[in-house]
Amino acid sequence: MSKTVIQIGTKVGSTLEKVWQYYTMAEHVVNWNHASDDWYTPEAENDLKTGGYFTYKMAAKDGSFNFNFAGIYTLVEPLKTIAYTLGDGRKVTIVFSEAEDGIVIDQSFEAEAVHDVEMQQQGWQAILDNFKQYTETH
Question: Which class is 5-137 in CATH?
């Protein structure tokens, strides 16, 4: 059975080097990795290399729930592409490309079976939108 692949994207008004750094460095990830204002990422670890591991602890601000979003990198091409496999086996690919007025980020990920596709797309897009806002204002 093939998995549904969801596409999201954005354009960030910044340099490729800054976008890459803010997307991949744990000290920045904790500032933008949330889908809504009632969630946050109190901890992040990132060994950014092919075969490396990352884990981002995502938590409700009211303390009611938290989970680790984690995976293993299957491809890291600096300033170009990141691919990883999540703990549940789903695959994610992020491509960074230069445009005339910023950096385009195209992301695809395999949907999970619990939540509907539209909800997953909206949540992941909200996180990417937070990344854009954080990067453009810091």
Answer: alpha beta
